[in-house]
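in:
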């Protein structure tokens, strides 16, 4: 039964990621991957909160951290976007994206953990 709930919450996370992606795609056209950065930072905040306040083996942790955050955040898209900037020889944007993702995601996780 737990697997079913994880699958459902993962699907909800993926739908939320899609909404964020559509929103930022319409808002920004400068080719900086704002949507992926946003979902990864928000996901880091949520998982930091879950790690601090929920037991690792709890039902709630599985639904939020494994399910929702697993569907919401996107490691593979992040690296595809980095590689695309590399192919375009957009090294400055690529570097800013890498550094901002790492710093903001760690900061958000820290913040979520200490709320």
């Amino acid at each position: 039964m737990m697997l079913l709930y994880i699958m459902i919450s993962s699907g909800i996370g993926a739908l939320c990621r899609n909404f964020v992606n559509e929103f930022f795609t319409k808002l920004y056209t400068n080719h900086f991957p704002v949507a992926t950065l946003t979902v990864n930072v928000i996901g880091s905040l949520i998982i930091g909160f879950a790690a601090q306040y929920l037991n690792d083996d709890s039902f709630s942790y599985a639904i939020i951290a494994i399910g929702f955050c697993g569907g919401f955040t996107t490691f593979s898209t992040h690296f595809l976007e980095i590689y695309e900037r590399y192919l375009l020889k957009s090294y400055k944007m690529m570097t800013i994206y890498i550094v901002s993702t790492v710093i903001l995601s760690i900061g958000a996780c820290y913040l979520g953990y200490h709320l």
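note: The chain has a mean pLDDT of 96.
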